[in-house]
Design goal:
The protein is of the alpha/beta class. The chain contains 17 helices and 14 strands. It folds into two domains: 37 residues, Monooxygenase (Up-down Bundle); 339 residues, Leucine-rich repeat, LRR (right-handed beta-alpha superhelix) (Alpha-Beta Horseshoe), CATH 3.80.10. Helix 8 packs parallel to helix 9, helix 9 packs parallel to helix 10 and helix 11 packs parallel to helix 12. InterPro entries: F-box-like_dom_sf, F-box_dom, LRR_dom_sf.
């Protein structure tokens, strides 16, 4: 152990008897351990308070808890408020998850001694109802909290959706009422409802900046309007498309609001043909962009091809588009015509029809496009080179699977990467399909 400390430069060598040695300046670690400790052998028990605290900050919770039992001094440091500002409760059932769960005794100790120190809190649960119920029970006990960030994360569905709405709302009310400083909330796939949002707004309207609540079926457009009307500092909002409305966009465009920076919209359908999606008027989109010129409008699509009819039939100021399922050539053609603010486009699948014309139209009309990703699609090498040539060096991200590219009489794959690299101004290769 002594040699290990010497190798790390943490132990001072034995002082020499010569006068010259006595006049030597202290080594650089003197500023860390202090002059009085330079003359003694350094060991873990004598580490300065702030050094132990820094080490604890990097330790996983279970190791931190074990280290706290080494001595009384380390146990005192274990309970310093700074260590409990950020905490993730991991609540998993052994029968449904391989992940380790936060020990119940430690949870109770945290609630008893550190509830008023917690500021950045998340609950990560597995798919079991028991884990979600445990999260609600903990939330119900945070009566002395001052939380700024709250996240409820399900590693697998349904989890929180299986908790009774009354129990979930009651637990949230405790946090919403007592915190009064919430700025960031993420609660996807939960039974959050309109009355809960009213409580949130009533107590945190001056501080709320980010609200992510996709797949919350008990929230109505009226609930979101309540947030939009009263939370004037709102910067980022994430919701399902079924909640999006002309009224909401106009509310977000009113003069009393601080400019929205990010609007994320999830467009999801679980039952093909059973959901008819409404359209948003161009005037409503225009009002939002006029009020917040730099707003990023991000749309995630998980639809079947026959469900896209309501989208992009007229100009839409979307900036980021992600298609998680197959999207038709006709739909991509509409994007090229009606999405002039587009910055990023990711298409996971299209089918086996070359997209040359659609990509070239997107390059022509979408002058801000800087990122493109194509998965299970087809593009001829000639068409792809033309697309890159038109976009030029502004394409900072270009992720294309090699299988997407169809060699032709003009370009082989070897020549393609040289030609594309020339127009991008950097070395580029297509992505390779993993072999596992």
């Amino acid at each position: 152990m002594k040699r290990a400390w010497q190798r790390a430069g943490l132990e001072k060598e034995a002082p020499q008897t010569s006068q010259k040695s006595k006049k030597q300046k202290p080594s650089s670690y003197g500023s860390v351990f202090g002059e009085s400790e330079l003359h003694t052998s350094v060991d873990w028990g004598n580490l300065p308070h702030h050094v132990v605290l820094r080490i604890f900050q990097f330790l996983p919770l279970i190791d931190r808890a074990r280290a706290s039992s080494v001595c009384r001094r380390w146990n005192d440091i274990f309970h310093i408020p700074d260590l409990w500002r950020r905490f993730e409760f991991e609540l998993n059932q052994p029968a449904t998850s391989y992940l380790k769960s936060t020990h119940p005794d430690l949870i109770q100790q945290i609630i008893k001694r550190h509830a008023d120190h917690l500021q950045y809190v998340s609950f990560k649960v597995d798919s079991s109802t028991e884990s979600a119920e445990a999260a609600c029970d903990i939330l119900s006990q945070l009566v002395n909290c001052s939380i700024k960030t709250l996240g409820l994360i399900s590693t697998a569905k349904p989890s929180f959706m299986n908790v009774s709405k009354a129990h979930f709302a009651s637990a949230l009310t405790v946090v919403f009422v007592n915190s009064k400083s919430l700025s960031s909330i993420k609660m996807d796939d939960t039974p959050l409802d309109d009355p809960s949002l009213k409580v949130l707004v009533a107590n945190n309207s001056d501080t709320l900046k980010l609200l992510k609540m996709s797949s919350c079926p008990h929230v109505s457009p009226a609930g979101i309007l309540c947030v939009a009307d009263q939370c004037h500092g709102l910067k980022e909002l994430a919701l399902n498309y079924y909640i999006l409305s002309d009224e909401l966009l106009l509310a977000l465009s009113s003069e009393k609001h601080v400019d929205l920076e990010h609007l994320r919209i999830d467009v999801v359908s679980e039952n093909p043909g059973q959901v008819e999606f409404h359209s948003i008027k161009k005037q409503s989109w225009d009002a939002l962009v006029k009020h917040s010129p730099k707003v990023n409008i991000v749309m995630y699509f998980f639809l079947y091809e026959e469900e896209f009819d309501a989208f992009f039939r007229e100009e839409t100021p979307v900036t980021h588009l992600y298609f998680g399922r197959a999207v038709s050539k006709a739909m991509l053609g509409r994007i090229g015509l009606n999405c002039p603010r587009l910055i990023e486009l990711v298409v996971c699948a299209n089918g086996l029809q070359p997209l040359d014309e659609e990509l070239i139209r997107i390059a022509q009309r979408c002058k801000h496009l800087t990122a493109m990703g194509l998965g299970e699609c087809e593009v001829t090498c000639r068409g792809f080179v033309e697309f890159v040539k038109m976009c030029g060096g502004r394409l900072t991200q270009l992720s294309i699977m090699e299988e997407v590219l169809i060699p032709d009489s003009d370009y082989s794959l070897d020549r393609l990467h040289l030609e594309v690299s020339k127009h991008l101004g950097r070395m580029w290769f297509p992505d390779m399909m993993p072999t596992w």
